[in-house]
Amino acid sequence: MAEAKPGWKSLPPGGIIVEPGSSLKYKTGTWRVVRPVINQDKCVRCRLCWLYCPDAAILETDEEYVDSKGRRWNRTYIINYDYCKGCGICAAECPVKAIDMVPEHQ
Ligand code: SF4
Ligand code: SF4
């Protein structure tokens, strides 16, 4: 005898978030073919990449950084590669071109 399949009435309605915060479980970083890499020496800590990233995949940390010119910065931006999809918006918006998009296999 054939196994009974669930009917359409047993499917959850679409477009409804039944579990708040569940998107954290979906690590979209595997979609990426190119990855953004921040050159911490070029970065002027303007925060634009953090602001524009559609996936909130750029994190602002309070980690200190001293660049090659001796400038001391009291925050550092890092990429959360678990969620970065490699769209390149951060690299396009960075005013000092401190973000390079490099092939994922490198
Ligand atoms: S490449 Fe796209 S998803 Fe990844 S950090 Fe930059 S803006 Fe965000
Ligand atoms: S947009 Fe560029 S300069 Fe500004 S914080 Fe991001 S990496 Fe640094």
CATH 2nd-level architecture: 2-Layer Sandwich
Question: Which fold does the CATH topology refer to?
Answer: Alpha-Beta Plaits
Strand arrangement across the biggest beta sheet = 1-6
Total count of domains? 1
Summarize model confidence as the mean pLDDT. 93
| Low-confidence region ranges | none
Share of residues in helices: under 10%
Give the helices and strands, then pairings.
Blueprint lengths: L33 E5 L9 H5 L5 E4 L3 E2 L5 E2 L2 E4 L9 H5 L5 E5 L3
Antiparallel strand pairs: 1-6, 2-5, 3-4
Characterise this structure.
The mean pLDDT is 93. This protein has 106 residues and is mainly beta. The strands form 3 sheets. The protein has a two-stranded antiparallel sheet with strand order 1-6. A two-stranded antiparallel sheet has the order 2-5. It has a single domain (28-103), classed as Alpha-Beta Plaits (2-Layer Sandwich). A hairpin with a 5-residue loop joins strand 3 (65-66) and strand 4. The protein is built from 2 helices and 6 strands. Bound molecules: iron/sulfur cluster (2 copies). One iron/sulfur cluster binds next to helix 1.
Short description:
9% of the residues lie in helices and 21% in strands. The protein has 106 residues and is mainly beta. It has a single domain (28-103), classed as Alpha-Beta Plaits.
